[in-house]
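Dear H.,

Thanks for agreeing to be a second pair of eyes. The structure we're designing against is below in token form, covering all 218 positions.
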């Protein structure tokens, strides 16, 4: 049986929380909150594939569809910068040689984990496969901090990404949704009311239901 392509955007979800990813991408559950709405607005501003800008010698393309046959992933780059480089690569339809630099836009600020970097790495690896080139760097632009962070797409990050995508395909093929692992981050998750992480805590189910009924009557 042929595998389905997985969305690159899901890599950030999966890295943040396996259960959140499964609820969205396997069970097709979704609910907006302020954080997701703000992120959506930011991406809508960036994702206009009809806009091509040029600043000095750098050409910026937006909303570029990408895919990888090897990883079985598909998605869209927020922006791809084409930078003139005599040691770069030729691109069909454009004269000269170019250095390719994808930029992913995020609503908040830089994170201590790799969830955003892994998504960017996936976009880079898709571009490499599609364009037969090397993409060794990319950038993350954080709207809240108005900060651009350059990321090395190194061997360690690539290996971590490939292992994660393999795990994602395994969950998807099985239709498996993991149990919740309650954490501080749950309170900011738009799916907390659907996920119900409290149910995974050791407690009497009767007491849980009784407490929530009482809260609803107050």
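And this is the sequence the design step returned. I haven't edited it by hand at all.
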């Amino acid at each position: 049986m042929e595998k389905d392509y997985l969305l690159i955007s899901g890599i950030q979800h999966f890295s943040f929380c396996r259960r959140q990813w499964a609820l969205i991408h396997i069970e097709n559950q979704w609910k907006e909150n302020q954080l997701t709405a703000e992120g959506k607005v930011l991406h809508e501003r960036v994702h206009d594939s009809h806009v091509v800008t040029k600043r000095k010698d750098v050409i910026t393309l937006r909303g570029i569809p990408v895919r990888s046959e090897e990883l079985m992933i598909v998605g869209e780059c927020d922006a791809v910068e084409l930078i003139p480089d005599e040691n770069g690569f030729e691109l069909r339809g454009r004269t000269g040689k170019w250095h390719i630099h994808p930029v992913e836009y995020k609503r908040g600020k830089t994170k201590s984990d790799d969830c955003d970097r892994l998504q960017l790495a996936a976009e880079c690896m898709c571009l490499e496969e599609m364009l037969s080139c090397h993409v060794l760097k990319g950038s993350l632009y954080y709207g809240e901090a108005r900060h651009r962070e350059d990321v090395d797409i190194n061997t360690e990050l690539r290996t971590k990404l490939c292992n994660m995508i393999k795990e994602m395909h395994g969950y998807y093929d099985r239709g498996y949704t993991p149990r919740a692992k309650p954490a501080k981050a749950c309170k900011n998750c738009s799916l907390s009311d659907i996920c119900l992480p409290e149910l995974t805590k050791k407690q009497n189910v009767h007491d849980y239901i009784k407490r929530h009924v009482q809260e609803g009557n107050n």
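Two observations from my side: Residues 33-43 have pLDDT under 50 and may be disordered. The beta strands are 6-7, 52-55, 58-68, 73-91, 94-106, 137-142, 147-152.

Warmly,
E.
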